[in-house]
């Protein structure tokens, strides 16, 4: 059985504004994004 690769190219370019963030700013942004994902998943679960 042949397994197809999930990712063709795993290289990522990190934007300068992210590189310049402090650890506290990064933590806050991660928390904000995680909350956004949770909110979208709940909304999707309710919709069907």
Structure overview:
It contains two helices and no strands. Helices cover 60% and strands 0% of the residues. The termini are far apart.
General form: flat
**Mean pLDDT across all amino acids:** 86
Number of strands: 0
Rg over CA atoms, rounded to whole Å, is 17 Å
Oligomer designation: single chain
**Approximately how much beta-strand content do the residues carry?**
under 5%
By DSSP (H or I, 4+ residues per run), the number of helices equals: 2
Low-confidence stretches: none
| Biggest sheet character | none
> What is the share of helical residues?
55-70%
Could you list some keywords that capture this structure?
single chain; 48 residues; mainly alpha; 2 helices
Summed up:
This protein is mostly helical and 48 residues long.
Write the topology of this structure.
Blueprint: H1 16-19, H2 23-47
């Amino acid at each position: 059985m042949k397994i197809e690769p999930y990712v063709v190219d795993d290289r990522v370019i990190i934007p300068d504004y992210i590189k310049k963030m402090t650890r506290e700013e990064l933590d806050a942004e991660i928390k904000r994004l995680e909350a956004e994902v949770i909110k979208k998943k709940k909304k999707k679960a309710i919709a069907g």
